[in-house]
Specification:
The structure is a single chain. The chain has about 220 residues and is mainly α. The protein is about 80% helix and about 0% strand. The chain is built from eleven helices and no strands. Helix 2 crosses helix 4 and helix 3 packs parallel to helix 5.
């Protein structure tokens, strides 16, 4: 419960916490950002880390001069692509065994199946689309590894998606994060970023739940 409250506080006051981190750690802030992005994209057990909102905040602080955009962008792209590669290799080595059984100590079966459904619908483009969808982006490279996607194809989609994701949110924060209206209502803006990020996944999940009974009825008839 304490961990949940701390995460909520982190999301709601990201600007305050980010400012404290920069003041306390200085240049090591880049390393901390790298680790967070790498873990969110590279470890299936950490899909809850604040990717989109963190990138927007990092861009906003870069616009203030607290961080250097020229260093921030390539570093975070490297973290995102590197995390994807680790996740892909883990999925490739673990294989379909993670789908066996209804419960698994480390993997959420429902998230895996939902991501698999995305692959069936969008193919390799899932790695690009999923970048903008929390949780799904963490499982997408893992499922690509399980499905034995050719590595060259995987890498091309991963790099393209990583550049698009980091660029969109960091540059969004850089160009808009310090506008007076955004700066004075930063918490509301971060909440809006989170809602917009989560919304496609929620819509897809609702559509999937509605279509499943229809498919079962069609199969029964």
């Amino acid at each position: 419960m304490n961990l949940l409250l701390r995460l909520v506080d982190l999301f709601l006051h990201l600007d305050k916490h980010f400012s404290q981190v920069i003041a306390h750690y200085g240049v090591w802030t880049y390393g901390l950002l790298f680790v967070i992005l790498f873990c969110e994209t590279g470890l299936v057990v950490t899909p809850f880390l604040p990717g989109d909102s963190l990138l927007f905040a990092a861009g906003a602080f870069a616009a203030k001069g607290d961080l250097h955009l020229g260093l921030l962008l390539p570093l975070l792209i490297l973290a995102a692509v590197g995390g994807d590669n680790l996740n892909y290799l883990i999925g490739r080595s673990v294989g379909p065994r993670v789908f066996q059984g209804e419960r698994n100590r480390f993997f959420n079966r429902e998230h895996l199946l939902r991501t698999q459904a995305f692959y069936e619908k969008y193919g390799g483009r899932t790695l690009i689309i999923a970048r903008f969808m929390p949780i799904v982006r963490t499982f997408a490279p893992f499922v690509a590894g399980i499905g034995r996607m050719p590595y060259g194809r995987f890498l091309a989609f991963s790099v393209t998606g990583g550049c698009a994701w980091i660029g969109a949110f960091c540059l969004g924060g850089y160009f808009f994060g310090n506008l007076p209206g955004v700066r004075h209502h930063f918490t509301l803006v971060i909440l809006a970023v989170i809602v917009v990020s989560v919304l496609p996944g929620v819509i897809e999940a609702v559509r999937h739940r509605k279509s499943t009974p229809r498919e079962q009825d069609a199969a029964a008839s």
